[in-house]
């Protein structure tokens, strides 16, 4: 299981240090939540801060866009050279075009689905993406409760992926901990995002990451 800690739960007063801590603690990706105050009722960070995160990180960035005007934000973040950029299917009229744009920058494209969106919505895009991110909370905030229906959704998506694009990864984001991760692994999930579990673990960041792995 790959682990992508979300820096949304980091101490933004000591951000570089908190990014180094997850990289040294054995994470695989650094999950960066970009929120615009329109698509979701919260506002986070832009390219100036993400650039600083990239400097501190020794693992690829996994940028999760929760914004309107996805193409604008892809152009804005592309020069930072993240490993992945994901966008919400619910917010995109031209997902296929956007996927091509992300790939043209040499960045791996991913699509995100909110808790209510069925995996069938992206059946005809699956061959073009490297990862599908399934939300297991409503996007906008860290520290929310895990929505268990994501397990069934991951199972259904896995069956589709096996037929259409076996290399495509499944990532789950929101409320993940060392207990519910077992059902996710059994469902075929490849990557978990964890914010509060990693940054607020009583035994520290490295211990939290190894507990998830
Ligand atoms: C929610 C974000 C998540 C969040 C996860 O909109 O996409 O990445 O930070 O935090 P936890 O693990 O605390 O739910
Ligand atoms: Zn996220």
Word description of this protein:
- The structure is a single chain.
- With 213 residues, this protein is an alpha/beta fold.
- It has one domain: Aldolase class I (TIM Barrel).
- It is built from eight helices and eight strands; from the N terminus they run E-H-E-H-E-H-E-H-E-E-H-E-H-E-H-H.
- An eight-stranded parallel sheet has the order 1-8-7-6-5-4-3-2.
- Strand 2, helix 2 (47-56) and strand 3 (61-66) form a beta-alpha-beta unit.
- Helix 1 packs across helix 2.
- The longest helix is centred in the C-terminal third of the chain and has 15 residues, at 150-164.
- It is globular and about 40 Å long.
- It starts with a strand and ends with a helix.
- The mean pLDDT is 98.
- Bound molecules: D-xylitol-5-phosphate (DX5) and zinc ion.
Name the helicity range: 25-40%
Query: Could you name the CATH homologous superfamily?
Result: Aldolase class I
| Count of domain modules | 1
Order of strands in the sheet with most strands: 1-8-7-6-5-4-3-2
Q: Identify every distinct bound molecule in the structure, by name, code or SMILES.
A: D-xylitol-5-phosphate, zinc ion
For this structure, what is the CATH class? Alpha Beta
Task: Give average pLDDT, whole number.
Answer: 98
Shape: globular
Total of helices:
8
Q: What's the SSE pattern?
A: EHEHEHEHEEHEHEHH
Give the N-to-C terminal Cα separation: 6 Å
């Amino acid at each position: 299981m790959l682990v992508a800690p979300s820096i949304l739960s980091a101490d933004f007063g000591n951000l570089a240090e908190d990014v180094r801590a997850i990289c040294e603690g054995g994470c695989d990706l650094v999950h960066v939540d970009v929120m615009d105050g329109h698509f979701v009722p919260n506002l986070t960070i832009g390219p100036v801060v993400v650039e600083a995160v990239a400097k501190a990180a020794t693992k690829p960035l996994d940028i999760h866009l929760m914004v309107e005007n996805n193409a604008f934000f892809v152009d804005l973040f592309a020069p930072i050279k993240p490993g992945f950029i994901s966008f919400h299917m619910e917010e995109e009229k031209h997902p296929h075009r956007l996927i091509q744009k992300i790939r043209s920058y040499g960045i791996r494209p991913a699509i995100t689905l909110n808790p209510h969106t069925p995996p069938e919505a992206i059946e005809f895009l699956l061959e073009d993406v490297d990862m599908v991110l399934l939300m297991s909370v409503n996007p906008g905030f860290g520290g929310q409760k895990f929505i268990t229906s994501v397990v069934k959704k991951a199972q259904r998506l896995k069956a589709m992926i096996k037929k259409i694009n076996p290399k495509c990864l499944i990532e789950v984001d929101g409320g993940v901990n060392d207990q519910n991760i077992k059902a996710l692994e059994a469902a075929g999930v490849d990557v978990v995002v964890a914010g509060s579990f990693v940054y607020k673990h009583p035994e520290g960041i490295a211990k939290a990451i190894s507990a998830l792995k």
